[in-house]
Design goal:
This protein is mostly helical. It is 45% helix and 6% strand. The protein has eleven helices and five strands; from the N terminus they run H-H-H-E-H-H-H-E-H-H-E-H-E-H-E-H. The strands form two sheets. The protein has a three-stranded parallel β-sheet, with helices on one face. The longest helix is centred in the N-terminal third of the chain and has 22 residues. The chain is globular and about 55 Å long.
């Protein structure tokens, strides 16, 4: 599919996300809107599945760790015909098929229930391991890929870090140019290869953030992406990077909302009430 169509699909997903949260008057639009481009590209060009047989054993799997980003998942699955517009309108309503945090429903494309951060990450790693075991037993006829969407908050959880260590143990680091040993990472195809994300959002005081960021960057010295929102937080991060002589990048969520750098979007507020 050409990039223009993928972009239009992502724009439609973003509109659906905003509409779902606005209709429910609750939810988290920012991260979901920021991930719309990713899921649109993934589902249009990479994930292999059979629309006629959603439980096909050799389908590719998509695990979403941050359950609060459920509007992103429901939005893209609606474009694949798994959810109706009426069902999206029932987002976060009691007894609906579109709860605030997705619940396992393979026929609709929901591969995992997600609540506590880190849970989906671990499930994805386990699924990738199981896929390799199946292939070893039955051959490439059952081979498939496991994709995982993992948030910055998720990878700070110890359960998630444990899963990362299990997966990383099969991937002798490529950061220094050494050849990878193949194995689990090749099957897992996680969508943050060689990236460590730090989330620095504990204060709006630049001086405080500088000290927090310095501490975190010294602990996670191979960090590639550092996440902050408001100007003071970003300035604090930049100060820490300069003082430590480390390179960093800034990730901002709430893409295309027009309010992407506000605490309200980050913490989950409908756009109409910000």
């Amino acid at each position: 599919m050409d990039n223009q169509k993928i972009t239009r699909a992502a724009d439609n997903v973003r509109v659906l996300i905003a509409a779902m949260v606005e209709k429910a008057q609750s939810g988290h639009p920012g991260g979901a809107m920021g991930g719309a481009d990713f899921v649109s590209a993934l589902f249009s060009s990479h994930i292999i599945y059979d629309p006629r047989d959603p439980e096909w054993i050799a389908r590719d799997r998509f695990f979403m760790d941050p359950g609060h980003m459920s509007p992103m998942l429901y939005g893209i699955l609606a474009l694949t015909g798994r959810y109706s517009m009426d069902e999206l309108k029932e987002f976060r309503q009691w007894g609906s098929v579109t709860p605030g945090h997705p619940e396992l429903d393979v026929k609709r494309g929901v591969e995992n229930s997600s609540g506590p951060l880190g849970q989906g990450h671990v499930m994805a790693v386990g699924c990738a391991i199981a896929e390799r075991v199946l292939v070893a037993q039955f051959g490439d006829v059952v081979a498939h890929k496991t994709y995982a969407f993992i948030s910055d908050g998720g990878i700070q959880e110890e359960i998630s870090q444990g899963a990362g260590r299990i997966a990383g143990g099969h991937d002798q680091t490529s950061k220094n140019g050494q050849e990878r040993t193949n194995g689990l990472i090749d099957a897992l195809a996680e969508l943050y290869p060689d990236i460590e994300v730090l989330d620095v959002q504990y204060s709006n005081d630049a001086a405080v953030v500088t000290e927090i960021a310095k501490s975190m960057m010294m602990t996670y010295s191979d960090a590639d992406v550092i996440y902050g929102t408001c100007d003071n937080v970003v300035n604090g991060i930049l100060n820490a990077v300069a003082e430590l002589g480390m390179e960093g990048k800034i990730k901002v969520i709430g893409y295309d909302s027009g309010k992407q750098q506000t605490d309200a979007v980050r913490n989950g507020t409908v756009f109409g009430s910000i």
